[in-house]
Amino acid sequence: MLTTKVGNLILKNPVMPASGTFGYGLEMQRWVSLEDLGAIVTKGLSLKPIIGNPPPRIVETPCGMLNAIGLENIGVDAFIDEKLPQLRKYGVPVIANIFATSYDDFQKLAEKLSSQDGVSALEINVSCPNVQEGGIHFGSVPKSVEKVVSKVKRKSGSLDVWVKLPPEIFRIKELANAARNGGASAVVVTNTIPAMAVDIKTRLPVLANVTGGLSGQAIKPIALKLVWEVASQCKIDVVGVGGISSAEDVLEFLLVGAKAVQIGSNNFRDPESIGKIIKELPDMMRGYKIKSVREFIGTLEIREVS
Ligand SMILES: Cc1cc2nc3c(=O)[nH]c(=O)nc-3n(C[C@H](O)[C@H](O)[C@H](O)COP(=O)(O)O)c2cc1C
To answer: In this structure, how many other beta carbons lie within 10 angstroms of the beta carbon of residue 262?
Structure first.
């Protein structure tokens, strides 16, 4: 009933955590039975460890959160040595989220991770400056997306490659097509939306980094529209992410065409909720007379306005 397929990867259910909101998975064992997840998506991994931005790096907003963590992580080698051996035991597909500022570093990451047992796919975060091409983000330029994907693909053996796209509202389809042309088997839509918060009293930005990324319920309608656009008009699988906080939200993303979904900020609000959402899905589906995830995906009907 819950099985789904993203690219070549079969998942026992369509729900997984979003990168950066679930640590390396292992930290969440207190609240979530990891073996129940459709997949585990790691925090973003870079070649070398990164300390991230100074605090404050997270701010609550009325219906979401703003973060500027600065991609803090232990580095790919420590992930492979310390985390992956334990993650493997759960028998759940592990999606390694990777980021870099050059094509060469992306390729090195792909090479290291694809030679390991227990990684099922790579998720490329393209919301990073491309220092080899003037510092503009990879994800803002379709040609750079295609190039980075094809370079990663060449070094990733049999692993599927997913691309985590930024919320480029006017060119999301171009970016998704570029990912497909580069050899990606899925796009993950969407990352956080650039935003800021300020303090009138101190006259300072609230985040030490000045700006950050908005996530959570505030961005759900935007994410839903982006997912619908790509899923209905581009020939590539889509994983939907943005503001999902209930089983009904999961169904909404499947309805507009997502093959699977990721849950991010909601893990901060209630770390047990991802497990509860997965458990609630079958009953909720029966309530809506949905027989299976696979037959329900992309069944949104658009009525002609007369
Ligand atoms: C604290 C925090 C850290 C994040 N770190 C990453 C990251 O390392 N790599 C990445 O691709 N996305 C990262 N994201 C983006 C999320 O994976 C997700 O795309 C975004 O938060 C939207 O989903 P949500 O509204 O369910 O949170 C991060 C988000 C948050 C809130």
So the answer is: 28
